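Dear Dr. L.,

I hope this message finds you well. Following up on our conversation about the binding site, I have prepared a predicted three-dimensional model of the protein together with 4'-deoxy-4'-aminopyridoxal-5'-phosphate. For your records, I am including the exact sequence and ligand specification that went into the calculation, followed by the structure tokens. Please feel free to forward this to your student if that is useful.
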Amino acid sequence: MKRIVRTEGAHLVDETGELILDAISSWWVITHGHRHPPIMQAIRDATEAYGQIIFAEYTHEPAEALASGLIEIAPPGLAHVFYSDSGSTCVEVALKMALGFFHNSGTPRRRIVVMEHGYHGDTIGTMSTGERGVFNAAYEPLLFGVDRLPFPAPGKEQDTLDAFEGFCRTGQVAALLIEPLVLGAGGMKMYPATVLSELKRIAERHDSLLIADEVMTGWGRTGTMFACSQAALTPDILCTSKGLTGGALPLAATLCTAAIFDAHLSTDRSRTFFHSSSYTANPIACAAALANLEVWKNEPVGARVDALSAMQEARLAPLQNNRHFADVRRTGTIVALDLDVPGGGYLADVGPRLRAFFRQKNLLIRPLGNIIYLMPPYCVTATELDCAYAAIEEAAQRVAEGTV
Ligand code: PMP
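The resulting structure of the complex is given below.
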């Protein structure tokens, strides 16, 4: 355990003054860097006027301006914004919107389809949609059933599409909930945009909704602002959090189409979208997110994302033939390397040993079992990245020798 006293750019600083490279952006929330100055300034400014403001019958400028700004940059056709405060809650909201849409339209549908290895949060609802295992076994009796698609591994894409078509034919599928292009916490599994486009086409054919969980993939991580745009599609519902405030404060948003919004009439109690939370649209968090939108407009963030993607590719290429890795892959700025160990997987016991190794090296890298991944803030330098890759190669070598 290390006690952190300060953060700066791509680093955490511990109480002994040591710099720790945050190679996973503190669970993928930090995009530009820790304490990015314009976002911190906006937070300071907002505290001059605001604390918390109830967000029911009362509104405020940061929430309104942010909603307009989000609609502007979101895939075209998303027209409304609902605020919450974490990745889990914005997905929970999305599930309720999808089920509410069909209920309110007089054609109730009950099934949610998800992808094998997906992760969408730790509330009872979102846990129900994720993988089952030791981490949620205690709650199993309360989790609801979902239909799971096989992961579209290379050569198996058609199986995924056929399975989805099969589920949809029941006429019971309200929505496909999916992480576009990269399934994060389930092992940084990557699949092509063409599969996502096809899934959307199937959903449309059966009047099912597509919920894009862009909690991890949003804000440039996969090379574009949102991953959905690489499949040239607009989801019916889009979930975003983490990079929404540049990672500075907790905030989340669920964006939806006019059709979904219109199915929820606030004047008709039987059709109201009943979801309220004390801190919905906290004005200081909204001001931070607004400042983040300005950063994207005023600073060359897209160029930084491209540069980081290229740096990652350059370091990844030589590892393709490294015998210690069973697979190495990249989507945009995200890189994953599967260590070739017996009994790999999310819970592989090499995970905690690797974490300790990297902690000793002052590197914040937290492998998912045998899957080592890098998702640094966009301000990381080539030299810093070199250190991370050198440590990863050393770790792989030492795991093979049995000394880690
Ligand atoms: N969805 C995805 C795709 C995520 O990666 C995460 C968090 N890792 C969540 C939802 C849940 O977000 P939070 O931890 O903020 O609740």
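In brief: The two ends are 18 Å apart (CA to CA).

With kind regards,
A. P.
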